[in-house]
Amino acid sequence: LVEKVIENATNVSYRKSAKNVTDMTCQNISHTAAWNVTQELGERIANEEKKKIEKYYRGELNGKKEVKVLFEEVDGLWINMQGKDRPKGKNRGKREIKLAITYEGCERKNEKMPRYLLHNKRAVAGFMDAEDFKDLRDANIAEEYDVDKIEVKLIGGDGAQWIKQGLEEGVHFQLDRYHISKAVIRNVYDKKEARKILKMLYTGKEDRAIGRIRELMYECGGEEDKVIKLQELESYLENNREGLRLYKEREDINLPGPPEGLYYRNMGTAEHNICDILKLRMKGNKASWSISGANNLAKILAAKASGKLYETIDGLMSSVVPERLAEEFVEVIENTTHKVKKAVKANVYPVRRGGMPFKGCPLTEGMKVVKRFINGDTIIGSM
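Now predict its structure.
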């Protein structure tokens, strides 16, 4: 039952989840019960992650899997908050929830079609500051892999400082090409020039691209809004210069060959995974969240994306229905019983008692016959 509640809650609202499970199992579950059991699992995952980070700092996480190259892509999703968790100011009531995925490369989904899947994808998510999230990312890797055997680690993202935090030897950053295109198209007023700049960036001519942006600042006639946008673009590209070129084309990366059956393709799956893992469930439909509610659901969604949802439920949730859900069952049953009693009381016609017919009034011959019949007298004999 818990599995069905969680499975539904990762796809649809808690109210819809409760209805689906009720229809499927004939057990009356309220949306509050669905919310409760989801929070219970999310909190337990968060507690396990804290223990994992503590083990990581003590050097007790020693993954067994050996890979030479590991990919990691990191991004965030801004979601609407509610109540006291709703921030004021420029964020306009939104907070960023973070997501990181790791994978070993790509494998072909079908030999007849050029479609690929990420191999051994693992995800972590949550409302955390940059340092704590970095610890969680590293602990998640150390739990699975022998980190001493990783020769090249590639991190992809949109260039935010919290993503690039802690870059070290053997770890290389690549700027997501979706965000490069987005920045150029938004900030270059001449769209033909924007396409030329993108072509320069994608063909390894970063210096020429940045130089052309500077030239456009003069060619626009000094219009303030255009100059400001071009300056923002120049700053964005300069701050992420080391990640502008594809990792395969960089001279400072000595990339080992991929294992059999895997391919090292271009990075850039962060936005896709943000959409599939978090956005489809947590954004839109006028949804708003508390910090704890969003954090707990995000951790469940990350476990699902890692292919470990049912394993996590079995490991962290007892076979007995959790207290939060059990209490809700009791409440639902009591409420249902109360409603049934009220319905029975309202629908049963009350018994009314009255006197004997024709008593104390003049009788006709016909009335006398009816009265004798009611009293059980023999009508024929009396006639």
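The beta strands are 69-80, 94-103, 106-110, 113-118, 122-126, 152-157, 171-175.
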